[in-house]
Amino acid sequence: MKLKIKDVDISSGGPLIAVMNKQDAALLDLHVMDRIKIKKGKKIETVVLDIAESDKIIPEGKIGVFEEVVHSLKLKNNDEVAIIPARKPLSLDSIKKKLDGQELSKKEIDQIVWDIVHNKLSAVELTYFVAACYMHVMSSRETILLTKAMVEHGDTLKIDRYPIIDKHCIGGIPGNRTTPIVVPIIAAAGYTMPKTSSRSITSPAGTADTMEVLANVTFPIKKMKEIVLKTNACIVWGGSLNLAPADDKIIAVERPLEIDAESQLLASIMAKKHSVSSTHILIDIPSGKDAKVKSKSGALKLKKEFENIGKKLKKRIKVIITDGSQPIGNGIGPALEARDILWILKRDPRKPADLEKKCLMMCANIFSMLRIKNGYKKSLELLNSGKAYRKMIEIIKAQNGKETAAEDIPIGKNTYDLLSAKSGRVREIDNLTISRIARIAGAPHDKGAGMYLYRHVSDKVKRGDKLFTIYSESRHKFKFAVEFAKVNNGFVVK
Questions:
Q1: pTM here?
Q2: Residue 355 near residue 337 (C-beta atoms within 8 A)
Q3: Percent of the chain residues topping a pLDDT of 70
């Protein structure tokens, strides 16, 4: 069949998509989500098919193509192309197999990753793969194969230095912004730490969201390498690089579903670490009833899995299990977390003690891996001397940012103080509720949105004391956040 091109001027951001008129599709017995090949001259591209019910959208004799297809085949409006039915990706059979709870082979996993990277799977099909791995957790063997496949189908950062330090927290705890403190401490000690970070999936801010308040986080891999060679470190968004690109596409599906399958979590983390040539890796697993990992036994199981993968990849890995029962730090949301970071690095009295203590503990564990004694003391000296702060400013400037005082960081102008209804002691703080309030207020999309906590678990409070302040850039979002917080504020005071 020959059809004429109609450029619909829409980008999918992923799979290659074309839209046919329902009459033309019927002639070839094609249906929504089928595959077709579009041929122009010697160039051929396989695309996912959608079908237009209205002639006004796509008339008979034409085929609407998304921007990715236009660029790939160098198409123009009214270009004539050949339409050929095509079979669906080979990996779909493997995804069905995983949905049935069966173990996948190396070849099957490799094909799935290849199809993900090359946009051969539709959003629906990729979602089924994520769901399958969520329902039927991959074995250690499958997870290692997935990790290696993710790395193989992407770029790698090669730096001729040893050791290369990295760390990762599996997330889920509001305010747990350790990376922008740990990285400058380790780099100030003279060690190399190229840190790629993610944006938020379920929390009010990911590390990349918070770092973006202070500097640019989007760089090509060549520029990332330049920054690392110049400053010993970087804090950049992994999604802007082609490091384990399948992972970023999987995360894009996980975000709206707010799920994080264990096997994909393991593969995601270790693939990113492997792709930047890390030799020494610290993994932080917060554990608590409202954390991603609910129990100590679950944390120990995950610890064992990380250690197993690290061994297979020939990495020196240390896994710590930390308290995930409540938020860490005071600021919740990108800008508010950035203020906490600067207050710690600048030794400001307003610095959150719990976040600082955790960062020092993490640095001590990294130094221990490097066989350096008194790591906690050394880390504290690097903070108190101002060396860590100066290193952070060096990193910020290398990433096209500028030195900024914490007080000058813009935060939401719409504010509401949530007061304690009774006197007593804070017994619990629900992480999920705190995250929900901050996200309703606009975080992480609105950088200045979120919350500032005044109390943590075990703190005494009097009736009328402030528990937290909500910040929002939008009056509409602010209203909903306040309404939600009045019903459920996440604090248990007894």
A1: 0.84
A2: no
A3: 99
Confidence category of residue 266, pLDDT binned at 50, 70, 90: confident
Distance CA 33, CA 31 (A): 6
Average pLDDT, the chain: 93
Active site residue 260: yes
Q: Look at residue 258 in the predicted model and tell me its pLDDT.
A: 67
> How far apart, in Å, do the first and last CA atoms of the chain sit?
73
Neighbours of 32 (CB within 10 A): 13
- Asked if 159 contacts 225 with a C-beta cutoff of 8 angstroms, the reply is yes
3-state secondary structure of 164: strand
Tokens standing for residue 265: 């979590």
CB proximity list for 277: less than 8 A, separation 6 or greater: 156, 157, 158, 159, 164
| Strand duo 424-429 + 491-493: pairing | antiparallel
Q: Tokens for 314?
A: 């020939």
Walk me through the domains of the chain, giving residue ranges and CATH numbers.
2-86 (2.40.40.20), 91-136 (no CATH), 165-240+276-406 (3.40.1030.10), 412-493 (3.90.1170.30)
Catalytic entry in 247, 260, 290, 430: 260
Q: What is the pLDDT of residues 107-149, one digit of tens each?
A: 999 999 999 998 888 888 999 999 999 889 899 899 999 999 9
- The answer to whether the CB of 145 falls within 8 A of the CB of 319 is no
Question: Reduced to 3 states, what is the DSSP secondary structure of residue 448?
Answer: coil
DSSP state of 88: P
Q: Which helix (H) or strand (E) holds 237?
A: strand 233-237
Contact between residue 405 and residue 342 where contact means Cβ atoms under 8 Å apart = yes
Give tens-digit pLDDT for 297-306.
999 999 999 9
Q: 81 near 8, Cβ under 8 Å?
A: no
* Contact status, residue 140 vs residue 262, Cβ threshold 8 Å: no
